[in-house]
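Action item from last week, closing it out:
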Amino acid sequence: MKNVLARGGIEFIAVFLGIALSLWVDEYRENNEIQRLNNSILNRLYDNLESDSTNFTWVINAHKASLKSCNSINKWIDSSQNIHDSVNIHISRVAINTFTWANKEEYSSLKTSGRLDLIKNEELVKTLHEYYSQIEFAQKVEDDLNSDWIQNEFIPFIADYSNYFGNPIKEDIYGYYYPQFVLHSVPETNKIKYFVSRKIKTSNGAIYVYDGLLTLTKKLRKLIRTTIIIT
């Protein structure tokens, strides 16, 4: 009787261990698959951040070019010079209008799937949240402080003093990304000074925001490199 009970107990334990082992193997495989998917997403995110970094650098340089032209316009007005080709370039650069673009697809995939919780690097998760929150803020800055007044106020004002608005005729306008005005008369000085001062403020603000985003892209790429193997 004791042998029967012992044999039954051993069989029960064997069955129990078999089930437990099977469940552990299934869980192990599932966790490995989740980790593989996470690594794949983070690899793509790493590449996207490089693209974002290039975009932010371009935007910063565009606003720096605009600031330089704003200073040149102020000097031109103060010295009461006649219209010349460089003035057309500088006036056109006041109309530089950038926009914020960043690929959020990979971050959204991690967030909506709940797999962000599986990333063990807490600093990476925290910085990801900070980065994409700053992206949303930058987009709002562009919409509220930059795009609207340039399109609705500055361009219509300069149009009254121009006989051309389009692709550069002779000079390069920051890589031909922006159309050129050709002035036929000097704009109202007080008004143009107002627009220039406004552009100086918004461009300085944009440079500050994008410098911060650029710093975050570098930090995120470094954190991702320490978290996974980049393929």
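Closing note: Residues 2-227 form one domain.
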